[in-house]
Amino acid sequence: MADTRAFEQACDNSVNKMQELLMQNMELTLDHIAEKAKEKVGVGTGELRADTKSLGVEIVGDEVRGAVGNTSDHAIYHHQGTGIYAVNGDGRKTPWSYDDPKTGEKIWTKGSKPNPYLKDTIEQEQSTISKLLGGAN
Fold first, then answer.
1. What is residue 121's three-state secondary structure?
2. Which one, of 97, 119, 131, lies nearest residue 41 by Cα?
3. What are the residues whose beta carbons fall under 8 Å from the beta carbon of 116, sequence distance 6 or more?
4. Could you read off the pLDDT of 60-119 as tens digits, one per residue?
């Protein structure tokens, strides 16, 4: 009976160590993606670049999940585009105006083209992502 408990404890310890290792690998991977994505984000004020980061790692069931992103209100519009340029074609179809916060001038626009810097980074970094998730540094 004691041998069975020791074996079960050893198995549990192995699973816990593996999860810790996978979480560490995911954190390294997310940091890498965030740094590479910062090179691709358009810079107006620098807010998007500064706020692009790992949003955390968690274990859900038998999966280790992680996210990289941006918490700025306008990040989604920069990434996915707006108006007639929106990625999924679901943007506004008619021009609109806004007041430029710097000059106060009224600006008319049909939207802005997308800059999918996160998506592009993930696609372009697949080889490195696979290596980092597998434990290569």
1. helix
2. 119
3. 79, 80, 87
4. 988 899 999 999 998 999 999 999 999 999 999 999 999 998 899 999 999 999 999 999
